[in-house]
Specification:
Layout (H helix, E strand, L loop, with lengths): L2 H8 L7 H16 L6 H8 L4 H6 L3 H26 L5 H12 L4 H14 L3 H26 L3
Helix pairs in contact: 2-3, 2-5, 2-7, 5-8, 6-8, 7-8
């Protein structure tokens, strides 16, 4: 399931833990309002919780945003991993191109949030290091996909 669709589905999931609600709400708020206009109050309102709960579950807004990116990236990578596992190597590159085209709109918010954080990371070495971990994992999967494509005759 594409990340944007799964985030919409989790907005009102009964029984969802407060921490997860905050992670999903932070992601939606940044995707909708941008990084500069997202604050603790807007995230709490989006999650339907008291703003103090954000500080109970996360050391800072930045820690919450990091968790939101990690969650989104993990879901996106799970989609790629499922594609890799289900596709014969000879067909993998073409399958990935189709997957990318079919899920581009659904994953738009993920790319928007990652780009916003990437811009911020240009002046924040700690954030840059955190994003690099996710980027390295994604590059590894893409190397496999593109390697399969290069092996075609």
């Amino acid at each position: 399931m594409a990340y944007r669709a799964s985030m919409a589905a989790t907005k009102t999931t009964p029984g969802q833990g407060t921490r997860d609600k905050l992670i999903d709400a932070a992601f939606r708020a940044v995707a909708r309002d941008g990084l500069a206009d997202t604050n603790v109050k807007s995230i709490a309102a989006e999650a339907g919780v008291n703003p103090g709960l954000l500080h109970y579950h996360f050391a800072s807004k930045d820690a919450l945003l990091q968790a939101a990116v990690e969650s989104a990236t993990a879901r996106y990578m799970a989609e790629i991993d499922a594609l890799i596992a289900a596709t014969p190597r000879a067909e993998l590159f073409d399958a990935y191109v189709r997957f990318s085209a079919e899920t581009l709109e659904a994953n738009r918010d993920l790319f928007r949030v990652r780009l916003s954080l990437g811009v911020r990371a240009m002046n924040d070495a700690g954030l840059a290091a955190q994003l690099e971990v996710a980027n390295e994992a994604i590059r590894g999967r893409l190397a496999m996909v593109f390697g399969a494509g290069a092996g075609r005759s």
